[in-house]
Amino acid sequence: MPRFGIGQRAFLIITPSGNVLWDCISFLDSATIEIIRLLGGLKAIAISHPHFYSAMATWGQTFECPVLVHDADRQWVADPDSCVEFWTGESKDILTGITTHRLGGHFPGSTVLLWADRRALFPGDTILVAPDGKYVSFMWSYPNNVPLPAGEVERIASRLSPLDFDSIYSPFWERGEIERNAKEAVDRSILRHLKGPAATERILT
Fold first, then answer.
1. Per-residue pLDDT tens digits for 161-190
2. Sign of torsion, CA 55 56 59 60?
3. Nearest to 107 by CA among 73, 79, 80
4. What is the residue range of 104's domain?
5. What is the pTM of this model?
6. Does any domain span residue 118?
């Protein structure tokens, strides 16, 4: 499949309670619309952060469903629409077993989605799978390689701690996913971010 935009991807989460789209790409064609409708349409669209905002109103209008955006990132919504719903607080239940959690970091309202039945975490850009598939990174600016401050990573760690997940799925095709033991990989990565590579090796060995 040809690369589009910055190589981002969206996820269609299919459950007995209905379907949720996590993030949405900027291009929506008739074939995609037909496939999603054949699979039962959408109950909701949840967006992780402003880099996925561009066509979200078009998606919401097309599938006649709410587009859920955290209120902390309201200022970056350039195309307001009645389908866009702003939510507040630290978490929001979308459907049975599907919950979004605001972690902040990359943006104030950056959220992750937890699919409890599959123990799967969809982190947007809040957490990014490293190329080796063994670690993740926590960045404020990905294009400029500016990491988040240690205090922010510690805060994110405390929010992640109670979440039960075993796999994690990157928003970019080339970064892929960690399909097993993802929580351990995140814990290792937090330690590395806070203490540095040498300290991490000493603690883990």
1. 999 999 999 887 766 799 999 999 999 999
2. negative
3. 73
4. 11-204
5. 0.90
6. yes
